[in-house]
TrEMBL record:
The protein, known as: Plastocyanin
PANTHER family: BLL1555 PROTEIN
Residues that, per the record, bind Cu cation: 76, 112, 115
Gene Ontology molecular function: copper ion binding; electron transfer activity
A Pfam family per the record: Copper-bind
Organism: Rhodococcus tukisamuensis
UniProt-listed PROSITE patterns: PROKAR_LIPOPROTEIN
The keyword Signal is annotated on this UniProt entry: yes
Subcellular location: Periplasm
Length: 125
């Protein structure tokens, strides 16, 4: 009889685990899908794989962009390119992060001056 009680307890635990794994990410037909406030958050650009990911970000005046250097110890930098409304530049970095706040609207092209072809754009609205 003791074995039957243990089996019942295990069965109840498994059943509750399955119920707890139910997909609740879809809204009911009468509910609106949740919206993301990610556009209000300051974006992060990851410097990895000899590229900037994402290569283009769009922000509002007064927001900052953070570049996170995560390319297995390969040195990179972030430097505004010709035509940018204002200048910005990080030091040469193999890790860590650099942030810049954009106070003027415009399109800010930037590059890694150490690696031809590594380029990105910040669009400030």
């Amino acid at each position: 009889m003791r074995g039957l009680g243990s089996a019942t307890a295990i069965g109840l635990l498994l059943a509750s685990a399955v119920v707890g794994c139910a997909d609740t990410s879809k809204p009911d037909a009468g509910q609106a899908a949740p919206t993301s406030s990610a556009s209000n958050a300051d974006p992060t650009v990851v410097v990895s794989g000899m590229s900037f990911q994402p290569s283009t970000v769009t922000i509002r005046v007064g927001q900052a962009v953070t570049w996170k250097f995560d390319d297995r110890g390969i040195a990179h930098n972030v430097t505004s390119a010709a035509g940018a409304p204002a200048r910005f530049a990080s030091t040469i970095m193999t890790g860590g992060s650099y942030s810049h706040t954009f106070d003027q609207p415009g399109t800010y092209p930037y590059t890694c001056t150490l690696h031809a072809g590594m380029a990105g754009t910040v669009v400030v609205q």
